[in-house]
Design brief:
Blueprint (H helix, E strand, L loop, with lengths): L6 H15 L2 H5 L1 H6 L7 H26 L6 H7 L1 H34 L3 H16 L3 H29 L4 H11 L10 H24 L5 H28 L1 H4 L5 H9 L1 H30 L7 H15 L4 H8 L3 H22 L4 H11 L1
Helix pairs in contact: 1-8, 1-10, 1-11, 1-14, 4-10, 4-11, 5-6, 5-18, 6-7, 6-14, 6-15, 6-16, 7-14, 7-15, 8-11, 8-13, 8-14, 10-17, 13-14, 14-15
Length: 374
């Protein structure tokens, strides 16, 4: 049994996991609002479902990456889903990554414009440049950068949520009454909180399989991947849960805001609001950079001399795409990804059952896949 582990590695894995998921949707609070707060008290069920699934998937992807050591992270899709569907996903997923990267660039422009009154182009160019420079450092340096950002975002988000909740806890009964009267008019992503929690996790599977598989390949010990995945999933949804309750306690006001987390922070103090705007930008950055890395890595490994050039071309294209309206991009790109993710989770479960029954780890399959590629 593997008795070795590295606390620093576990924290970096967990932080990278969290930072990859916390993009503009999570950091602004819109994802938490729509997927959980819109369901009232029953939203807590969705929180726990998502926490379990995120923890399980984090452990699985990190540890499988440690075992199979993929040279091309996109081959993780062929490993899990077979040649036909896997090959299809190998081409679809980088396109999706690029599309979400474009959304992050656009969101950064809108964020800086709204908070600081600067031209949207300033925010978009700054975010694109920061993502490119970080990605140019390679996967290990990238993991260190965003791995350190993740814990900062979690600590700040939980702190703001807890303070806001305690400040307005006595308002919770009135807010729940308001929720009952307006619940039917809310545009919910799913019929109930259970499906909503499932959809929220599934939406992120497309991003996680490749990035965490590649990150896990840098691990030496099984316990690093286990505790990194578990800690990442729990911390992610713990912060979501605190924000969910804080928004629910102020549903009459928070539900009408484009950026409910900033509203909560401003209610505590304008200074806290300004600090939270920086956290929001860090959240966008920490999602944009892994997406850019995965897109670039699809063409050449990051140790290849051509990697930086490919990453630069993709960054420029992403910047051009990011000039479109943020909300329009979200409406166009996001809707069906959750349902694709649900299918992926079911197929992953079947694959894990097959490996367990046959006493295999996937290493032989990955070697065969990569040998065929060569």
């Amino acid at each position: 049994m593997d008795k070795n582990f590295n606390i620093k590695t576990i924290i970096i894995f967990a932080g990278s996991y969290v930072a990859t998921i916390i993009g503009s949707g999570f950091a602004t609070g819109q994802e938490i609002l729509q997927f959980f707060s819109y369901y009232g008290i029953s939203g807590i069920i969705g929180i726990f479902i998502a926490m379990f699934l995120f923890s399980f998937l984090g452990i699985e992807f990190l540890n499988r990456g440690r075992i199979v050591k993929p040279k091309d992270t996109m081959k993780m899709f062929t490993l899990y889903f077979g040649k036909t569907l896997g090959t299809l996903l190998e081409y679809f997923v980088p396109i999706f990554f690029f599309a979400v990267f474009v959304v992050m660039i656009s969101g950064a422009g809108d964020t800086i414009s709204e908070y600081y009154g600067l031209n949207r182009f300033v925010g978009r160019i700054a975010m694109a440049a920061a993502a490119y420079i970080t990605v140019s450092l390679g996967l290990k340096k990238l993991a260190n950068v965003i791995g350190n950002i993740g814990p900062v975002i979690i600590i700040f988000t939980i702190s703001v949520g807890l303070i806001s909740l305690l400040m307005h806890l006595n308002n919770l009964p009135a807010s729940l009454e308001y929720f009952k009267n307006t619940s039917s008019s809310l545009n919910k992503p799913a019929p109930n909180a259970v499906i909503s929690g499932l959809l929220y996790t599934a939406y992120n599977v497309v991003v996680l399989a490749g990035f965490l598989g590649g990150l896990g390949s840098t691990a030496e010990h099984k316990k690093d991947t286990f505790w990194g995945g578990l800690l990442g999933g729990v911390c992610l949804m713990l912060s979501a849960g605190v924000m969910y309750l804080a928004m629910l306690a102020q549903s009459e006001f928070a539900f009408s805001k484009d950026i409910p987390t900033l509203y909560l922070a401003d209610q505590i103090s304008p200074v806290i609001g300004k600090l939270f705007s920086i956290i929001l930008l860090l959240g966008i950055f920490s999602t944009a950079t892994p997406l850019l890395w995965m897109c670039s890595n699809r063409f050449v490994p990051d140790e290849n001399p051509k990697f930086k050039f490919i990453a630069l071309i993709i960054t420029i294209l992403g910047l051009i795409g990011g000039m479109f309206e943020f909300k329009a991009l979200v409406r166009t790109i996001y809707p069906y990804t959750g349902y694709i993710g649900i299918v992926m989770m079911v197929l992953i479960a079947f694959k894990l059952f097959k490996w367990k029954r046959e006493g295999k780890t996937g290493l032989e399959e990955m070697q065969a896949i990569e040998n065929t590629k060569e």
